[in-house]
Amino acid sequence: MKKLVSVLFALMMLLSSTALANINYEGDPRIVPEGEDVTLTIFAGLVANTVESFDRSVNQTTQIVEKDTGLKLEFVEAPADGVDQKLNLLLNSGDYPDVIMYKGIKKAAMDMYGQEGIFIPLDEYMSAETTPNTLELFDYNPATKAYVTGSDGLIYSLPDYNEAYHCMYGEGRLWYSMPFMAEYEAGLPNTTAELKDYLQWVKDNDVNGNGDAADEVPLAFHSGNADRFIRWISNFYQVHPYENYRVNVEGEGDVVACFTTEEYKMALTLAHELYADGLILEDAFSISKEDLQSIGEAPAGETLATIIGWGPEDGVIKAGSTNRWFDYFILPPVEGENGHRTTVYNANYPCQGGWFVTDNCPEEYRLYAVELGDLFLDEYYGYTAYIGPKGVSWDDPTTPEALGINGKPAWFRELVNYGTQEVNCSWDQRMLSNRYAEFRLSQEAEGSDTIIQYLDGDLSLKDQVIPLSSYNEVMKFYGSQKSLEPYAFGAEWCVPALLYDEDVADEANDAETAIDTYRKEMAAAFVTGTRDLGEFDAYVQELYGMGLQTVLDAKNAAYSVLK
Predict the structure, then answer these.
(1) Is pLDDT of 397 > 60?
(2) How far apart are CA 419 and CA 311, in angstroms?
(3) Contact 418, 393 (CB under 8 A)
(4) Distance (Å, whole) CA 84 – CA 94
């Protein structure tokens, strides 16, 4: 990771129009001594549309990493929509690979596997020589070390860090079709009543003008975004962070469950009304992303008035042939009937684990496995794995005068919008990386002024923004800043990563897993009407019967240690 620049050096950079801080690897990336033959096995999940295989025969990043490090990499691959299921089967069978490359393992699960001996402690393999990028990240943000440290004080993963402004607002976000909204005389909705009016207007009118008044979908999401939809609508009535639990800042300062409150019931009531009135895609809770994109890309005309998701790409093809992806802007949250109005903010987003060395890794290879994970925390290899090789997916800035998103000299430029890179040229976001704020904002923002004017409503500029490879990053950054940040709740509401007391950890973890599954099932049931909202109190009691009080007690005990 690049050292944080001094104030003097930063000033010099701002004053110089020719200084560049291009992204290149400094040093020798080779890990395996010449003549030694080492193969590491790695578990990794595939990525729809970008990674069909990690195998060296087709994947360009794998080829680069093997060539530069001297390692041979064999992958145990999981389908994009079945990573958790396959990983659980492997870990339960004992037949798992040397390295688990997966960011979906929460801290509590990491600690459990560490105590069971499946994940080995990495402390003895860390030094300024072997893991310089990890140690520098620990210094940059000590929370990264805390997140990958178990209850015994040992480190069980290398960290992943993504200090992305727009990602902190990504877990409950709605995108509206500007061409549709431009036809709506009342303008952007500000209350739940106005939101319902807009969605009803879409349903009742042939907004796309193709002669079919029934092909417009007022509100859509795919099954993978059902939880984002619930958090989005819940924040009209209460603070509801990504974790689905919150610190009761205005009360006793304890941890409470967001999915048991009266405000949550109000949100489900609104969602059910929208669904019952045909304003939500009927099979939203079961449809796949690909099938929803087929609806969004219908040849007869634009169909999706609003899309819940990380980006418009959750409903239409990113920079696809129709260019509909460029039509969607972020809608600010609306105000609930109780006067509340917030947007999801995930203060814990930047820190994750993601590189676990298992006890099946031969002892003589464990240092190599740690060094490989550390290599991805360097900008050059991390970004190559993220989006693809230099010269193919990204490159040096176009000119010495080029500026980044932060208005300072750019360090690099993207040649493609992320998510549209060549298939199998990258590892996408499955690997570790350290995309700290200064790095992310140093991406060349070609045409950023034009993009911002477009996002502010000058739709005549669409043809000018379509070719700009910086559009994805600028659009999400600026859209979140403009439409979501004013309604964000503070980080103090977010429950940090917690480790439960050893005597209750197994019971609390098992209960939390079961409760999370049931919470999602019941949210869908209440919204679609297969369960009546008159039974909400009974649902809450069912959660307590499943061990919710045990979970809350464990969270509060662990949180009290951090206060």
Answers:
(1) yes
(2) 11
(3) no
(4) 16
Environment class of 88 (CB within 10 Å of its CB; exposed 0-12, middle 13-18, buried 19+): exposed
User: In whole angstroms, what is the distance from residue 333 CA to residue 312 CA?
Assistant: 17
Q: How far is CA 244 from the centre of its chain?
A: 16
- The rounded distance, in Å, linking the Cα atoms of 515 and 505 is 15
Amino acid 255 reads: V
Asked which of 9-23, 26-40, 186-200, 375-389 is least confident by mean pLDDT, the reply is: 9-23
Say which residue the tokens 């860390």 belong to: 126
Cβ burial, residue 408 (10 Å; 0-12/13-18/19+): middle
Strands, DSSP E only, in 123-260? 158-162, 174-177, 245-247, 255-257
Token code pair at residue 114? 């560490």
Compute the CA torsion angle 317, 170, 50, 88 (nearest 10 deg).
-130
Q: Across residues 384-398, what is the average pLDDT?
A: 96
pTM of the model: 0.81
Q: Which residues contact 216 (CB under 8 A, 6 or more apart)?
A: 180, 202, 203, 205, 206, 207, 208, 303, 305
Q: Please write the tens of the pLDDT for every residue from 51-81.
A: 999 999 999 999 999 999 999 999 999 999 8
Instruction: Name the token pair of 231.
Output: 């958090």
Q: Which two tokens stand for residue 127?
A: 């030094």
CA–CA separation, 500 and 149 (whole Å): 13
312: left (phi over 0), alpha (psi -120 to 50) or beta: alpha
The DSSP code sequence of 335-386 is BPTTS---B---TTTTEEEEEEEBTTS-GGGHHHHHHHHHHTTSHHHHHHHH
Q: Is 417 within 8 Å of 318 (Cβ atoms)?
A: yes
Element (H, E) at 240: none
Using CA atoms, how far residue 400 sits from 1, 11, 25, 57, 383, in Å, is 22, 16, 19, 37, 21
Q: What value does the mean pLDDT take over residues 437-451?
A: 92
Written as one letter, the residue type at 563 is K
Name the nearest CA neighbour of 474 among 263, 355, 311, 321: 311
Chain centroid to Cα 56, Å, comes to 27
**CA–CA separation, 343 vs 137, rounded Å?**
29
